[in-house]
Amino acid sequence: MTGRTSGLLLLMGTQVDDLGLQQMRALWESLESAPTLTWWASVVSDAGHHAGVRASDIARDSLRDCDSRLMSFLDHLDGLGSRPVTFMLTADHGFERSTQRHRLLERGP
Question: Domain span at residue 56?
């Protein structure tokens, strides 16, 4: 993947994730109107890992970008007051270990 292509993917992922954060804030405008169950997907971390390799600068930056949105939403929830909220976070990329398949993909053709 070229630097230009990976940069475009990250830019698009950032824009998509910014819209996702806006939607979450709108859904959670108040505790009274908050949904019982919400699913929120983030794409920028996936784009960053595909644009770079495991533990690359671009992959780490994409995780920081994703983390900042999550913190922003958690701060928003704190501002609403108290109500038990449960989060389940999932990911399909990591830094510590990767499967053989992922290691082969990182090397490229």
Answer: 3-107
Q: Is 97 left (phi over 0), alpha (psi -120 to 50) or beta?
A: beta
Specify the DSSP element, H or E, that contains 60.
helix 57-80
Residue whose entry in the numeric block shows the structure tokens 């499967």: 99
DSSP 63-92: HHHHHHHHHHHHHHHHHH-----------S
Distance between first and last Cα of the chain: 11
* Model confidence pTM above 0.85: no
Q: How many domains does the chain have?
A: 1
pLDDT digits (tens, 9 = 90+) for 46-94: 888 777 776 788 888 888 888 899 999 999 998 998 777 777 777 665 5
